[in-house]
Design a protein that fits this description.
- It contains 11 helices and 14 strands.
- The protein is an alpha+beta fold.
- The protein has 2 domains: about 160 residues, Aminopeptidase (3-Layer(aba) Sandwich), CATH 3.40.630.30; about 150 residues, 3-Layer(aba) Sandwich (Aminopeptidase), CATH 3.40.630.
- The strands form 2 sheets. Strands 1, 2, 3, 4, 5, 6, 7 and 14 form an 8-stranded mixed β-sheet that branches. It has a 6-stranded mixed β-sheet with strand order 8-13-12-11-10-9, sandwiched between helices.
- The protein is elongated.
Length: about 325
């Protein structure tokens, strides 16, 4: 297997990258070529000021075997190798490699990083690895073999709702009081004289005004307004625009009295909906627009045969009220 350190994303084709991802151990929107490239261009919306790209590919007889999208930066007072996309806005990250090639690709990658970039880093610090990723066990085995220090910890919960196409069956699994609340709030909105409507943005729509409407709703929350500083807004706009261009952006609104009052932006990818962010106006709070929109979103998933709604990172209470069941993303630190 021949490993190559690429200088930039232009040295590998998007189709080749995404083709391998489809067969990879972990196919998520955050590992797609367009997301990874745009994250690096914007450095996570300014999350990283000083970083060096370490984009490693492995080939065998010219066939692409694996991709390790990494970068080096000073982190916690040490030069560390992190997964491209770390840490805050990419909910799931991992290597891009087929299951059958994973163990030998990772072993060869560590050899390559330890020899080619030996003086540039002192540890690997990988965030947001799915709790079922084979990278976790392989890292532990490789660390033991090499005499490196290994530490693994839960980083964040990622609650999810399993779905089988039946909205009523989904509701039957929600705790009784919360089930009653979801039904009551959706019914009250439907019966309101204010003409409450659930609107899903079409794939052919001009996405720019729709994204601006979404961001405007995010700004009603002080914490989200602070998060959505200019660099982060540029980052998110680029990522969401690319998702729209590639056909997996899901952007829904709840309109009340002709005005967009709540918004939900998700990735519609691999037969499930990945809940990325949301925004809610302070108007018409008596109609619980955020809850009603989430109810419509899950109902849409059922009616359109999506097998799961993934709330992604975070332990906000509403996720569990809607029946979210915890999975986790992990952090692994390996020190030479």
């Amino acid at each position: 297997m021949h490993y190559t350190l690429l200088e930039n994303f232009s040295q590998i084709q998007a189709d080749e990258w995404n083709g391998l991802l489809k067969e990879s151990i972990s196919d998520t929107p955050f590992s797609r070529y367009e997301y990874q490239r745009l994250w690096w261009e914007h450095r996570g919306g300014g999350e990283w000021k000083d970083a060096r790209l370490v984009l490693v590919t492995a080939r065998e007889n010219e066939k692409l075997i694996g991709i390790a999208p990494l970068f080096i930066s000073e982190y916690e007072n040490q030069p560390a190798l992190l997964l491209n996309g770390s840490i805050e806005i990419s909910d799931y990250l991992d290597l891009i490699v087929r299951p059958d090639d994973h163990t030998r690709f990772l072993s060869g990658l560590l050899d390559f990083l330890a020899s080619t970039l030996a003086d540039s880093w002192s540890r690997l610090d990988w965030y947001n690895l799915p709790d079922d990723s084979p990278t976790l066990a392989a890292f532990k085995a490789e660390s033991t073999k090499r005499g490196w220090t290994h530490h693994e910890e839960i980083y964040r919960p990622t609650p999810r709702i399993a779905l089988n196409g039946d909205f009523e069956e989904y509701l039957s699994r929600v705790e009784k009081k919360q089930r009653h609340e979801i039904r009551r709030k959706m019914r009250r909105a439907a019966e309101s004289e204010l003409n409450v409507r659930f609107i899903l943005v079409d794939h052919s729509a001009d996405i720019e005004p729709e994204l601006n409407a979404f961001f405007d709703l995010m700004l009603h929350d002080p914490n989200k307004a602070a998060f959505l500083h200019p660099a982060m807004r540029e980052q998110m706009t680029a990522v969401l625009r690319a998702a729209h261009e590639n056909g997996y952006l899901w952007l829904g609104f709840l309109e009340i009295a002709g005005v967009k009052t709540a918004a939900s932006v998700n990735f519609d990818y691999k037969g499930k909906l990945w809940g990325y962010n949301s925004g809610v106006s302070r108007a018409h709070m008596e109609l619980s627009p955020g809850w009603v929109l989430l109810g419509h979103t899950i109902q849409w998933c059922c009616e359109n045969k999506r097998h799961e709604f993934d709330f992604m990172r975070g332990d906000e209470e509403y996720k569990y009220r809607f029946g979210g069941v915890n999975r986790f993303v992990m952090r692994v630190k390996i020190t030479k």
